[in-house]
Specification:
Ten copies of one chain form a homodecamer.
Chain A (H helix, E strand, L loop, with lengths): L1 E8 L7 H20 L3 E7 L4 E7 L3 H9 L7 E10 L10
Antiparallel strand pairs in A: 1-3, 1-4, 2-3
Chain lengths: 96, 96, 96, 96, 96, 96, 96, 96, 96, 96
């Protein structure tokens, strides 16, 4: 099942710079691992903001929840989740 | 350049059924033509709503505007456009 | 999979009374059919409003979309869909 | 009487980890006690968020208020309360 | 049980004047009947608006719903319902 | 003149418990004094929230302002004030 | 007592032009009569909008309500009413 | 030129009481100086809130900006600025 | 003085096509006349919407109001007006 | 490509005054460098606020993102980005 997720990051105020860079590296590593597994299908940055639009391909909402809450940045992110369906006008194989 | 577009359809009230079905067919044909050209990259339906999330791949904002305003459903849609960038964590070739 | 749906009804203005009562009866019949099938798990009215909170148990977002858009009242309803997960604190069998 | 409650948790910033885990355990224990008593009828997690939708079965608004404000997490939660009625289309015994 | 209700009236556009005056008289008669029964406890007009704040004293949310939806103006009103509790600081007998 | 006031309390973060209990006792004492004087006409708690709906009977907006800003909790409250009029449908003596 | 009123005009759609000009003239005449009486203290247009900010000097909220609802444009206006107090920093005699 | 300004004060948290009283005195002195110069035309307190509605008479937006940002309270205020025009229905000399 | 104006067009529903094209031509002619006079300094279309961002250079808010309300499309537009100042960091001559 | 950016500055609370002035000087220097390069086309202050409206002329959304996130004030700003198109009614050469 596909979910559209809008992630808004609020970087932790007062966190020391090294700790934050470590967190960022961990987030990136985890994101790429999920992409390689095919779970995190798309990831686009929103211009001018510390936000992204993502598409996840998971078994169900529970798997999605486990993935999102395990992200190193989760405590600093606000997520908006939207359940997607295949659109009858789409001709792309990978829109399902 | 990639743009994320959230389309919300408000079907024309009082339009006769045949006219509406014709319009719908024209919208679908035009959408598929744009997908074949690679301009309309993704199209997902939002569960429970007459809305979709789409991703367009165009030269610039003017090409996007011309495409969106030429859609048969344009007079009955509200569009929210967001400019996208490649995300440094993405490993997918087609997220650019 | 469980989905929480908030339905807001805007009764069609200017529809004649008999036609509306027929529509209402059709909506009720369809709702009860879906409850008997176990798809429409819960249905509660919101006090003072023409609105309800519902819980659906479906295979995925596509089945939910098909069910919701097939309701006789669909053209007169605004839907807000939220994907649910089992809560680790719940002890009720039927909260999954 | 049934009430629908939407709970949004904002975990206390700067609380030490052990203290937070204790609080979480106390919240879970209290929630399960209320479920066993039949007061807390349903509890579903909202995918991707530290939020839940719940249904309470209580004598009146005062009992609901006492229950909600006695939760260990209450100081860190925002609650939206909606009074529910039996829906005339529901065929489920436990929707009352 | 007490409920606070905020009623916002949108007078029916295009209704003929006599029909509207009849409706208004029926609304007033019904309101006063409910006040005499002690169900509609308070009714205040909001300055400069076609709106009111009311307090109802009813058995439960279902009785409230039946009362509100039976008002002659119901199809032209938006209602916001809030469940009230006795406040521990109140010394007034009739705030319960 | 009557005013409807919606008060939302945000308890002071990090205030020590005894200081807060003293503040709460002072707030309650002041509220009851104002009720005895007939200035604070009604006070109802909103179920599930640290909020109340109140009705004040004062000479004018200045007296209301002096009363509200003199409350011990004032620095921790957000107030929404609405000027009320007698409703022509009310039959209650004390709705003026 | 002083009240600040924000008036937003939505000119009646489909009203014939002469009828509208008559209504406009009646509104202007009534407004000037109220200004001469000193009830309508200030009237400023908001640049680029069919809206104004006004200040009324009336006995109480009921007199304000009667004045506002008697305006010829009332059925086509949305009003936001705010109760004002003399500001302790003001040195102008007519700010009371 | 006239501007309507809605000022919302958020008193600085944690500032010591004497420092705050000094700031308040400086704000009052500056406000009265601007009133004597005729720049700050009106100042009204909003009942129940730490907010005011003001009207300024300045040469242009730059003079307004310089005045507002030079107020001792500026770092603790949110301003909403609205450009005003003389209203054709006003008969007051000082509404220009 | 410079003003930033956000214009949102809602094309008149049900207007016949020729009448609308005439209106559109009149709007364009008037806009270009104002640009030649240097009053309408900038005009940009917002991608995907029937909206624009504009900058006007006028004597004061009254001249702006007269210009905006004289536009052929005015009855079908919602305007948001923001007063601008020269920015101390700008090095462009024409940002004043 | 042109982008309209609305920047809202929230000056860092508790930063020492010298550090803030240094940051401000760096922001100004960087802004002027970008203006000289023709990337930051327009910059206007919003009267009464620590906000500006800007227009950028960049190759694409990625260049815009790199520019905005490299601003010394970026961690203290909220940005709203809108993609612009040439307006068919514009006669100005530099509106493209």
């Amino acid at each position: 099942m596909l979910f559209h997720v809008h992630m808004v990051v609020s970087p932790p105020q007062g966190m020391d710079k090294d700790a934050f860079e470590k967190l960022r590296a961990a987030e990136k590593a985890r994101a790429q691992e999920l992409m390689k597994q095919g779970k995190w299908r798309h990831l686009w940055r929103i211009a001018g903001k510390y936000e992204n639009f993502s598409v996840f391909d998971v078994k169900d909402a529970s798997e999605l929840h486990d993935i999102l809450t395990s992200l190193p940045f989760f405590p600093f992110m606000k997520m908006d989740v939207t359940a997607l369906c295949r659109h009858p006008s789409s001709i792309r194989d990978d829109d399902t």
